[in-house]
Fold each of these.
Amino acid sequence: MIGILCNDIHSKLNPTRVARVLRPASEAEVVAALKEAAADGMAVSICGARHAMGGQQFGEGTLLLDLTGLTDLGELDREHGTIEAGAGLKWPELIEGLHARQAGEEVVWSIRQKQTGADDLTLGGSLAANIHGRGLDFRPIIGDVEAFTLVDAAGEVRRCSREENAELFRLAIGGYGCFGVITSVCLRLAPRMKMERLVEVTTIDRLLPALETRMAEGCRFGDFQFSIDERSPDFLRRGVLSSYRPVAPDREMPERREELERHHWEELIRLAHDDRAKVFEVYSSFYLRTHGALYWSDTHQLSVYLDDYHAELDRECGALVPASEMISELYVPRERLVEFMAAAAGRLKDGAVPVIYGTVRLIRRDGESFLAWAREDFACVIFNLHVEHDEAGIEAAAGAFRDLIDLALSFGGSFFLTYHRWARCDQIERAYPQFAEFLRLKEKHDPEGRFQSEWWRHHRNLFEMP
Ligand SMILES: Cc1cc2nc3c(=O)[nH]c(=O)nc-3n(C[C@H](O)[C@H](O)[C@H](O)COP(=O)(O)OP(=O)(O)OC[C@H]3O[C@@H](n4cnc5c(N)ncnc54)[C@H](O)[C@@H]3O)c2cc1C
């Protein structure tokens, strides 16, 4: 068969055969590729580091533009705390580049937030999904974006900001590559700070008051990693709350501190699959030992991700079918969090679709992006569920996620579009009443349908757009 088979990194549930892959190394090469695609009548899909899990980055038969070659680090504005950065830069490269640029300086500007659980994600992919990290009082990343440059469907280069091409600014952030190729981003930074990690084991009913206390004490980051043992009364109830509070700049940073190394993560992942009672004990005792440890505000957001970890697990346990994990993120008004978690525990406690990992975080309302998922100050609940890659396994996971979405919606919440595309049309319409308008605006900005992905095609069909 002709073409190149692509898939996403984490769930591996999106095998898609693209016609060709091009990896432009400059904005000029992006423009040339788009003009050539237009001349040939080719549809174009856009990828960064390939972590989205609903086919947002691939389209069957398309020309795939892989943007990971756009890694220029432009001007650092020390007065306003911004940097112009290539959309293909991944977070570790960006952080290292910023440190190198400011070696020995008293104030070091660095990133404000990034995703947790994986680092090799690009800036372009992060904008296109309007991501968030574990900030306690942060908006999604749109709040960190001053402007970006986009090459549109006609191959025109456009600067987009709140003042210039403002509609495209609101659409392309959180627009999953439907409106053009982001080539570079002017990102707002924050002075790098020393922070102390505060760790406690608590329960879901005490979480929000505990977080409020921590925020009043000055904590800027935090998350609650809950028990995944479906046979325990602690399931989705008891968890480890880690918060991070700035400390005086003259506090001595340790040469070494206890970290979760690669082999610890391998062990934790194995336990999460075959001893879900133990994994919480191992995990929480590690975190409790790090209570009071010091971290930098940027690098504490980095974490280990084990590429292809599931293939190894499958081999070890002689799995009959390959498996992986699929993530979902559900949002609920904060005052409904406890009820939502109890209802979710009721749905998942039969263990038919095991929870491998889960956290609760907070988000501030995003009043700017068109397809805003943070419609209000939500609590965010992340579930990483085990999926066996046969028809029954996929349907079981899809059904569980649809039920979790129904629950979130019944509490006035929403869900993230970055992951699978298993939501029903009515669920999308309820969470995103503006979705049909989003598709119409896509058509307005891209009348020839230059930018196409399996994700866009699925939604166009679901909403019966021409
Ligand atoms: C293990 C794991 C942990 C995660 N944790 C979090 C988290 O904590 N918070 C969170 O918010 N998300 C999280 N995510 C989701 C992730 O942030 C998004 O899927 C993100 O889009 C991935 O970036 P990427 O570089 O891999 O992009 P890809 O997956 O390659 O692409 C994603 C989307 O971005 C578009 N895109 C990519 N580059 C460009 C560009 N230059 N111009 C225009 N469009 C572009 C693509 O077309 C596609 O629609 C996680 C995902 C995984 C697998």
Amino acid sequence: MKAIIIGAGLGGLLSAAKLSQVGYQVEIFERLPITGGRFTNLNYRGFQLSSGALHTLPHGPTGPLTQLLKEVNADVQIIRSDQPTIRMPLEKSNPNYRKGFKDIFFNKFFTPLSNKDRLKIALLIVSTRKNRPSGSNLKAWIINQFKDEWLLKLADSFCGWSLSLKSDNVPLEEFFEMIENMYRFGGPGVPIGGCKGVIDALEAVIIANGGRIYNKTEVSKIIVENGRAAGIFAGDRVYEANLIISNLGHAATALLCSEALLDKTYASYFKMLELLKPSAGIKICLAADEPLVGHSGILLTPYAKRINGINEVTHVDPNLAPPGKHLTMSHQHIAPENLKNLRVEIELGLEDLKEIFPGKKYKVLLIQSYHDGWPVNRAASGLDPGNETPILELYVVGDGAKGKGGIEIEGVALGVAATMTKILG
Ligand SMILES: Cc1cc2nc3c(=O)[nH]c(=O)nc-3n(C[C@H](O)[C@H](O)[C@H](O)COP(=O)(O)OP(=O)(O)OC[C@H]3O[C@@H](n4cnc5c(N)ncnc54)[C@H](O)[C@@H]3O)c2cc1C
């Protein structure tokens, strides 16, 4: 049996590793000269910057991605990060970091609340695991339950960091699925070698199992015969296959087989594609001689103007920076209406960093913005339609087709695992 994978991002490589392990002849087509998509390292003066991700696995060494990596015998070490912290301003009446701050642990997020609201949180933590509350989105639910500014800011900071969305764009059901997964799988971790540590390990498995990766080879069309995927066009050649897995998200995949999808029986699929809005963000990479965050966990910054959170992965793997240096990376969500003002958004992010790290010395290494064809997420969490397409033997994996409650690459892994169950039983 022959499988073709379109795109060598994380979802494509995970699928290829699994299929090649069970005897499929696997060929991967990647338009770029590099492998790994938005999950690989970019070496800049000895700092391991990245094509997307901040070298963090949301559920660390016990999450769905690590489980799948173990299943395919990919040799990569993943270390649990320190507990996340939240940077709190000292002045409640006029809160900003310029006037001083203190850090609290994430699991003590309720401490700034009134006694009444603390009690309510304690009860909700127990009750919502059994009976999921209903409601449209996280922000509306918080306003309805608490009317508390602090919880709203924290929710925006958490959703901005983990999903590159504001809390009013996160469906309530999806938020509680994510929280349940945090109980089930635990907190974040960092792979040794960063994102590329994972990608290199997967590549080694695929090659050892006889698979092939063609870089600089763009797929221009998916061939469909009698409602079934039969092959692809890449370069000037046709490649036939029994199974095709696309790592491009549903919308880009549909474009590659648009002639076949013109049939009106597929109208509902096209209608659903309109809902799939990518999420956008800005990453700022800093170099410092002394630690800025001071631990390997995430630092959430709910009172910053734009920055949602920051990490410093060199506490886990010092080789992600030159000897004696630290690599610190911030992430900020971009609201759709601000995409036309990228420069302003970047300036606000840089101003935030000065306030978050007053008096500290650092150098800005790189500023990257992610949107449209190279976004933070291809589909906002909780809205994608899963891994199947209306075409038989054509599946979609990656962050445009995640499992429910799957944060970022953990969602990619959940989606690949679900796809493999459908294909292999
Ligand atoms: C700023 C930022 C920070 C992030 N931080 C984190 C984080 O810390 N932790 C985390 O878990 N996640 C994070 N993410 C998300 C994570 O990077 C992505 O969810 C994940 O990498 C997406 O993988 P994918 O499987 O969808 O593949 P993609 O990365 O989308 O790869 C798809 C590949 O397909 C190729 N391709 C496209 N069209 C064609 C074609 N026609 N023919 C051949 N090849 C084609 C592309 O070149 C690409 O290489 C972050 C993302 C960004 C942008």
